[in-house]
Amino acid sequence: MRIIFMGTPEFAIPSLKILLENQYEVTAAVTAPDKPRGRGQRLSSPPVKEFASKHSLAVFQPLSLKDKEFVNQIVQLSPDLIAVVAFRILPREVFEIPRYGSFNLHASLLPKYRGAAPINWAIIKGEKETGVTTFLLQEKVDTGSIILQARVKIGEDETAGELHDRLAAVGAEIVLQTVRLIELGKAKPHAQDESLASPAPKIHREMCRIDWAKTAQEVHNFVRGLSPDPCAFTFHNGKLLNIYRTKKTGVKVHEASPGLVVSKTDKELQVVTEDEALAIEELQQGGKKRMQIEEFLRGYRLDRGNRLG
Fold first, then answer.
1. What is the pTM (predicted TM-score) of this model?
2. 205-299 belongs to which CATH class?
3. For the domain bounded by 2-196, which CATH number is listed?
4. What is the average pLDDT across 179-201?
């Protein structure tokens, strides 16, 4: 079976790796163009390109997926299947090329959390469980018929970054199983239940400011759902503080307004929310390194009675 793999970030690599390890003929990898990064704005290759190049795969980096030259290149490769993991939206003229069509791996239990940030939103919304889904591509994003799903429990303190890595590994196994089913003619896709659909739109930096007036659980979910990137933030005396990890204390606080620092020791900092104090465990002052709270408090003045907001 001739497969074209399409993906860009680290999340996609385990899926490409497992196909190669199982001797599937991956004829090419399609990924995003190189981008300038860092202070020097040097061109940087996406992770999938770096991995594919190390394994001597042909790599395509089209600016437009509708470009006629690119579409013709895909046609000439005569793929039996296109496997998509964390990539752009494919136009019909591309996803209909393969003999067996094209499928996508999505990091949620579709139809829940359709969109660009399913891992983040599942945690922010307080879900106890999420998973991965493979589905056949069609023009409307994340709506195609489901082939396989795998469920994954979400830990109470698990961050989006930690869940991302677990789902990438689980997803790779589901990609392999999906390819095998399609190859054997045993795949039985079924339609999504539109009544269960929910959105997971891209998260922009301006959406990441902490609202301390929400409950401790809501703030805790918000912080871990955005950690490590794009990261929840707050301010103290005009200084930006990125918050990476918090912990519920169960300590009820009465007659204190949200955002107030109510407990501070050499190793602990607790902040008022709507219903209880929430401990900050890991953070970063803008422009400085990420630190555990003990190290941070040794070099930064933040006292009881101060306010975050």
1. 0.96
2. alpha beta
3. 3.40.50.170
4. 97
